[in-house]
Amino acid sequence: MTKFSRRTMLTGIAGGLVAPSLIRRAAAATTLKISTSFPNDPKFSTARIWYDLFLPRLKEATDGQIATQFFPDNQLGQEADVVNQVKSGVVDMMLVGTSIWTNIVPEIGAFDLGYIFQDFDHMRRVAASPAGEAVRQLLVQKASVHFPAWGRNLGARNFMTKFAFKTPAELAGKKIRCLPNPVVTETVKLMGAAATPMAFGEIYTGLQAGVIDGLEHDAPTVLSAKFYETAKNFTLTKHIHTPFGAFISDRTMTKLPAAQRDGLLKAIKEATDDQFAKASQIEADAMAELAKLGVTVAECDRAAFRERVRPMWDRFVERTPGAKPLLDAIQQTANG
Predict the structure, then answer these.
(1) Alpha helices in the chain (DSSP H)
(2) Same topology between domain 3-154+243-279 and domain 157-241+288-332
């Protein structure tokens, strides 16, 4: 066993959560390095759940010719750093939401506009439209990554805070961590908070140190990352329904033999569909578990928040004209 693989395995063993792996790497023609910022929690981590669904399908679809190395918990660096590693082919795949790619492909920021989607089914209808397909092509052209299947985070983004609130006015001056993404940052700011961009790996210590008063994320991620240990109020703002999935380096896709490439894409699409079907129940289970842990799960005046954020949609199209087909598709598919 090499030093590198031994360290990777020990990391999982220490947490009692060793991710499944394809042990017979010597027999595999290709090994893919897969990174994510999500925790290594098989029950509530978006990426780990997806990965566990993906592995058996990959083995079947490629006859065991592709093995994997899984690096959760920012082991290979913060998301922005890993984006560059995926572009260059140093990392083969990244399991992440679409938000992190907005700085490279501004058009994909339409999926982060506050209150733009009714639910995740609405989001996926847009993703399946010609406008959604055009965004996938832009990812290849501008970011050198392939996005084979539009999945979803395990829940809508909500606020997890050290204080209770129901209205925008009650967020005034409160520092809420948001993604380092201009669309999400503006959304949180319009909702009334002091938007504080921060890497995912810095949230826990930021809460502990009082650098932030809260964050916005889905319930399963809040649970798996243990943010409930410091913040005790989970408010159902439901402001963003973020796509999630596997982003593959174009260099990796180019070097794979055709049969392996086809098998990889098949496994990704099947795992993504399976996770999409399971996600709502996982979100419900996570919120129930948070309540058991002493977190207050509460409703808020979503109509008031939506009214404050709505003008941003038109401004986004003015700044990013290439996103207009997406906004048109969002309106056209709103009622199913």
Answers:
(1) 3-14, 46-62, 79-88, 120-127, 130-138, 182-190, 203-209, 219-224, 250-255, 258-292, 302-309, 311-319, 324-332
(2) yes
**Looking at residue 221, what is its pLDDT?**
96
Q: Has domain 157-241+288-332 been given CATH number 3.10.129.10?
A: no
Tens-place pLDDT, residues 52-61? 999 999 999 9
Q: What's the pLDDT band for 19 if we cut at 50, 70, 90? A: low
| pLDDT, averaged across the chain | 92
Answer for the pair 219, 199: CB distance below 8 angstroms, yes or no: no
Task: For residue 162, count other CB atoms closer than 10 A to its CB.
Answer: 14
Smallest CA-to-CA distance from 160 within 212, 96, 97, 98 is with 212
- Averaged over 65-84, what is the pLDDT? 96
Note the pLDDT of residue 335.
83
Please tell me the class of the 3-154+243-279 domain. alpha beta
**Contacts of residue 300, Cβ cutoff 8 Å, sequence gap at least 6:** 165, 166, 167, 235, 236, 237
Q: Given this model, what pLDDT does residue 312 score? A: 97
290 with 234: CB under 8 angstroms?
yes
Question: Rounded to the nearest 10 degrees, how much is the dihedral formed by the CA atoms of 320, 122, 153, 67?
Answer: -90
CB atoms near residue 49 (< 10 Å): 23
**Which sequence spans correspond to the domains of the chain?**
3-154+243-279, 157-241+288-332
Distance, in Å, from the CA atom of 203 to the CA atom of 221, rounded to the nearest integer, reads 12
Q: Which is nearest to 73 in space by CA: 64, 65, 82?
A: 82
Average pLDDT (149-153) is 98
Per-residue tokens: 38? 């999500």
